[in-house]
Amino acid sequence: MSSEELEKLHEIYRCLYEELKLIPHRALTCHGEDRRRLVRTFDERRGEAEEVLQGMEEELRAAPAPYRNSMVTKLRLYRRDLGKLQRDMKSSTSGSGSSAPTLQGGQRGVYSSQNEQSTQQQSQRALLLQGSEYLNSASQSIERSHRIAAETDQIGTDIIEELGEQREQLDRTRDRLVNTGENLSRSRKVLRAMSRRLMTNKLLLAIIMVMEVAILAAVVYLKFFKK
């Protein structure tokens, strides 16, 4: 519940009620079109006061129980006061010419016609208020949709940025793997070259050993067996 909104509605009602209190007395001193205009004004202000009371009731639905109960009692008193003003207004518009019964009937007809017009105006006002509520609800729904769209857009942007960072990491990892593969290829080439040199060295060593053995055998033969 918005206490500020409730106070605002209460102040509006008080202003309307103060204006309504003056109209029955003024109606006693007016005739013709001026009285009909006062009747229309009274009906319009009374309808506005009823709408304000309904708005106060809606605001009170979420109020704490003790406060709500006291305010509901006040609202009953306000409606009772409006009913009394309604009766005073009828009396003012229908009882000012006791010596002219025809005039009384005419004033009752005028009041009935004006009351019907007021009822139609209240119905139209209620439709307008309902339309305004629908528009407010639609506006709130649009605002929520815009907010959700903005949040979704922000999430999408964050995901794209994160994917971009992951792609950069993958590119760096791929580059490292390429460099590692090139290093492994060079290492394999070096190992193959070393293996070939080792085999060559072993072969040369074996040839040298064979030559040394042959020379040693020739020396022994020449020295001991050839006379």
Automatic annotation (TrEMBL):
Transmembrane domains' residue ranges: 203-224
Gene Ontology biological-process entries: Golgi to vacuole transport; intra-Golgi vesicle-mediated transport; intracellular protein transport; macroautophagy; regulation of protein localization to plasma membrane; retrograde transport, endosome to Golgi; vesicle fusion with Golgi apparatus
One Pfam family, short name: V-SNARE_C
Region named Disordered: 86-126
GO function term, MF aspect, one: SNARE binding
Keyword Transmembrane helix applies: yes
CDD domains the UniProt entry points to: SNARE_Vti1b (cd15890)
Chief localization: membrane
Keyword Transmembrane in annotation: yes
A single Gene Ontology CC term: cytosol
Bilayer topology: Single-pass type IV membrane protein
Keywords for this protein: Coiled coil, Membrane, Protein transport, Transmembrane, Transmembrane helix, Transport
InterPro entries (alphabetical): SNARE, T_SNARE_dom, v-SNARE_N_sf, Vesicle_trsprt_v-SNARE_N
Compositional bias annotation for Low complexity: 112-126
Subcellular location: Membrane
Domain T-SNARE coiled-coil homology: start-end pairs: 132-194
Family the UniProt entry places it in: Belongs to the VTI1 family.
Protein name: Vesicle transport through interaction with t-SNAREs homolog 1B
Naturally occurring in which organism (per UniProt): Austrofundulus limnaeus
Gene: vti1b
